[in-house]
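Anyone up for a design puzzle?
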């Protein structure tokens, strides 16, 4: 949506009793809106326009003439509601919201025409003014494939898509995108979370980071636990009770981890690769099979005896998969965070 906005653009009600000021490309634009429409659209706007602490004038009081909400078409000394903006995109978001509030549906974006920046600006305003309900009916038209848009890199992918999905998306959309972020994010050279080459998390996303670290700790823990078992067990784990078999597995695991920079032990915070890449790398590690030479006896000739059955303890494919599949369960708290975010906003508004 790219419209040349002017003061005329923001006159949503020529008889409106509220004068608004919006900054467009450094220029102040003035318009008019209907106070009752604004009051119904947002509880925050309602308190701006009708402060709960202001005394209510009596019908026959001269104070009625001084109440801003009755000063129709008179320029007020101080704007009751101002939205200062520094970019065209912010103004477009304001323009879109006020168009919906005043039933100017011909002004709103068309099907699949909402850009990333416009989405972000709308999300910020809807979150700020607690009015996401205004655009809910239009979201299926604007964002038919929100998750696909992000994952496929359309519309300039950015970490703020998580925030946009938090405000606009369904719980499932938000959780799917958060899980995807956990799976694909890595630590780049600047110490920031990054997904592939296009999305860099400039600000910390606590839950994504925590779940990512939790999963990495669990993946590495599978191998570190095996090392501890082989190193500290008083009895061999080998089915034939041979320490040599245990030693081969112990050495193989340590050597594999060392090649990957994961041994000596590392903390999850020090692992830069993504969960996806870590799981793939760990799953490729060879286990090593001990071959025991057995001398000739009366019953059989001398030959090598393979301890393949002992390798079962070191086969970790299913364990790695179980941890990986637990991401969704661990991300369940994302839904709580989402609900808590909305509840917190509502509580702050109620206490204001």
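Challenge accepted. My sequence:
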């Amino acid at each position: 949506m790219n419209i040349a906005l002017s003061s005329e653009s923001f006159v949503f009600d020529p008889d409106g009793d509220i004068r608004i000021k919006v900054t467009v490309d450094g220029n102040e634009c003035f318009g008019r809106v209907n106070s009752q429409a604004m009051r119904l659209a947002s509880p925050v706007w309602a308190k701006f326009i009708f402060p709960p602490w202001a005394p209510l004038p009596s019908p026959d009081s001269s104070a009625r003439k001084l109440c801003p909400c009755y000063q129709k078409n008179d320029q007020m000394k101080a704007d009751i509601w101002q939205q200062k903006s520094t970019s065209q995109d912010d103004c477009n978001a304001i323009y879109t919201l006020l168009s919906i509030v005043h039933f100017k549906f011909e002004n709103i974006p068309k099907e699949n025409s909402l850009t990333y920046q416009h989405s972000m600006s709308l999300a910020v305003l809807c979150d700020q003014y607690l009015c996401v309900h205004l655009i809910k009916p239009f979201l299926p038209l604007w964002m038919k494939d929100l998750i696909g848009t992000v994952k496929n890199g359309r519309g300039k992918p950015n970490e703020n898509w998580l925030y946009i999905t938090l405000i606009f998306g369904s719980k499932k959309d938000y959780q799917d995108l958060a899980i995807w972020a956990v799976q694909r994010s890595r630590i780049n050279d600047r110490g920031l979370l990054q997904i592939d080459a296009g999305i860099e998390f400039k600000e910390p996303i606590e839950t994504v980071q925590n779940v990512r670290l939790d999963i990495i700790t669990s993946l590495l823990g599978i191998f570190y636990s095996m090392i501890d078992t082989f190193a500290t067990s008083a009895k061999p784990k080998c089915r034939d009770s041979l320490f040599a078999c245990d030693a081969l597995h112990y050495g193989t695991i340590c050597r594999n981890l060392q090649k990957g920079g994961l041994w000596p032990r590392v903390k999850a915070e020090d692992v830069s690769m993504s969960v996806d890449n870590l799981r793939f790398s760990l799953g490729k590690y060879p286990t090593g099979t001990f071959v025991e030479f057995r001398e000739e006896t009366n019953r059989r000739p001398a030959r090598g005896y393979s301890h393949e059955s002992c390798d079962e303890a070191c086969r970790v494919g299913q364990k790695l998969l179980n941890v990986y599949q637990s991401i969704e369960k661990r991300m369940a708290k994302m839904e709580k965070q989402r609900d808590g975010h909305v509840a917190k906003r509502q509580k702050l508004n109620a206490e204001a």
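A detail worth pointing out: Residues 61-80 have pLDDT under 50 and may be disordered.
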